[in-house]
Amino acid sequence: MPDKLYLIKEGEISLKGGNRNLFEKRLRQNIKDKLGSYGVSIGKQKGRIYLGIDESAPDQEVEKALKTTFGITGFARAYTTEKDIEAMRETARQILPLSDFASGKGTFKIDARREDKSFPLSSYDISVDLASTVHEMYPELEVDLKNPDHTLHVEVRKEVYMYTDSRKGPGGLPVQTAGRGMILLSGGIDSPVAAISMAKRGMKLDCIYFHAYPYTSELALEKVKKLASLIAPYLGGTRLYVVPFTDGQLRIKKLAYEDETTLMFRASMMQTAQKLATARKACAIVTGEALSQVASQTLEAMSFTDSMTDLLVLRPLVGMDKEEIIGISKEIGTYETSILPYEDCCVIFSPKHPITHPVKEVVRRHYEALGMDEEIDKAIAATQVFYFNPMGQEEERNSMPDSDGEDSGRV
Ligand code: ATP
Ligand code: MG
For the chain, what is the radius of gyration of the CA atoms? Predict the structure, then answer.
């Protein structure tokens, strides 16, 4: 079967000077990791990526893949034709009925670009000519060069590329160009948004979930797995580490001052995450905390939890309102899952009056007195790993090479 073609625009990558090649190579690899099973071929010309993919690839799947690939600012299904104005008119006649032009209503523009200056017609000539073709087909459409409802793009390069209906990509930088981190993924609204905010800047992320079964239910774990699968396309695939922390929680509940239990739990999460991160050669921990959202998210409390790890702790949502975070979670499609009513931390572990302004040195001493090291090591030894591929599907471990992911594109 012949390939269909997508034209992809890269964003900030084009500013990356000497590293540009590396960024572009990574972007192409990230696209292949998602769509490779359809036999993709990827070419490049002046700030554009040309993705050829087998006709059998479902449009929706290609769109999902491209919409979740950071580094892409826009894309469109494109058609090639010969460098001949009659061939271009004929292509317009074929593709416009498949596009939003077909409504026959509103305004339009022909956006022609002649990159190949040997082509005898100027960009303006091409626009005027194809505008007549559009008028023949849809007499009610009016030209509006400033704010058109529909645009037919024509690019005269080695061949002529024509496309309508261009879609927005997610922008950002390709994942795996900015080091590796671990996101503390709970079942809430915030942490999936935090993960995606960092992935957008090129970070490769694995997820860690602390599970206190049976105090947190199987359904809570299923919910976190679902969230991992929803964010996996943005993350270019991810691992979910499920740390069984019931004994750790019970030890904290038994030995800690009641108003400090949340802080103690957070301190042990940091220490556990650091160990898992180090094994994975990750150098940062990401959380969904926002300043003053809850008692453990005051400056003093966050400063204390920071002090429990040597790794960089990133909180991309720290200055955001809940409403803004909810807006993003709706955009990325995690909101509906995040609000499912399975509590991710059982009330029995939450103090009635949590301390909000801890003195770091004091609570550190209290934490050290709990002797959590053994519980943490035990929990890590019993940690389960789930794998989600770059299209968001869960995969068996043995079907994915256990590489460190530095250059394989695998998770
Ligand atoms: P919500 O959206 O309801 O605020 P949340 O996920 O932000 O949910 P918080 O209690 O505010 O929950 O926790 C702050 C951050 O701590 C989370 O964003 C997440 O990064 C991390 N976290 C909390 N609980 C867990 C857990 N059980 N496992 C992993 N990370 C967790
Ligand atoms: Mg929160």
Answer: 26
pLDDT digits 0-9 by tens, 324-356:
999 999 999 999 999 998 765 566 788 888 999
Ligand 1: atom nearest CA of 288 is 18
Q: How far apart are CA 221 and CA 242, in angstroms?
A: 8
86 CA → ligand 2 middle, Å: 59
Which bound ligand lies closest to the C-alpha atom of 329?
Answer: 1
Residue 181: closest CA among 407, 409, 405, 408: 405
The rounded distance, in Å, linking the Cα atoms of 67 and 168 is 7
Evaluate: CB of 188 within 6 angstroms of ligand 1.
yes
CB atoms within 10 A of CB 36: 13
Q: Which ligand is nearest to the CA of 287?
A: 1
- Residue 348 has a CB neighbour count (10 Å cut-off) of 10
Q: Is 317 in the pocket of ligand 1 (CB under 6 A)?
A: no
Taking CA atoms, 395 is separated from 69, 221, 306, 332, in Å, by 20, 17, 34, 22
> What is the percent of the chain where pLDDT is above 90?
83
For the record, the structure tokens of 311 come out as: 């790794």
For residue 17, pLDDT over 80 is answered with no
Nearest residue to 206 (alpha-carbon basis) of 69, 379, 36, 386: 386
- Which residue's CA is the nearest one to ligand 1's atom 24? 186
| Cβ pair 6, 38 in contact under 8 A | no
Q: What pLDDT is recorded for position 114?
A: 95
Shortest-distance ligand to the CA of residue 337: 1
Question: What number does the ligand 1 atom closest to the CA of 212 have?
Answer: 27
Q: In one letter, which amino acid is 133?
A: T
Residue type at position 307: S
Dump pLDDT digits (tens) for 180-201: 999 999 999 999 999 999 999 9
User: What residue owns the CA closest to ligand 1's atom 5?
Assistant: 188
From 183, 184, 285, give the residue whose CB has the most ligand 1 atoms within 8 Å, as the site to mutate: 184
